[in-house]
Amino acid sequence: MLPGPDTAMVLMTAVRSGRRAASRRWLPSFGWGFRRALMTCVLNPKVGVFFVVVLPQFIPAGAAVGPTSLALAMLHAAVAVLWYLLLGGVVAGGAGAVLARRQVRVWLDRVTAAVFLGFGLRLAADTAAR
Fold first, then answer.
1. What is the pLDDT of residue 19?
2. Nearest CA to 116 among 32, 20, 2, 23?
3. Computed over its alpha carbons, how large is the radius of gyration of the chain?
4. CB of 113 within 8 A of CB of 11?
5. Cβ 14 vs Cβ 121: under 8 Å
6. Is the confidence at residue 53, as pLDDT, over 70?
7. How many CA atoms lie within 13 A of 110 on its CB side?
8. How far apart are CA 113 and CA 18, in angstroms?
């Protein structure tokens, strides 16, 4: 079996990440980051799979499925908001100064590129072995 589009996407992400590390000269705005994160979450099929596969087991027998599902989804959203507020506070509080350094961003981008390259090569090897 030949490596598929998923392998190509992971390898392409690794290459782009490595190139971007050397050429990035701007810091993205809050709005840009928010839109990118929102689209990443909305277009991520794992979110839908989570709600279809994991969530139903927490609905008690005999409970109204619609309202209980909505309550659980709202609880999930509230926990996510609290987590991201905490994460944002940590970044704004001091870690942001470290992450704003060009050398740190380049290093993080290169490490990320290497990790994605490793994942892509492993995926290609596993797919080819089947």
1. 62
2. 20
3. 19
4. no
5. no
6. yes
7. 9
8. 5
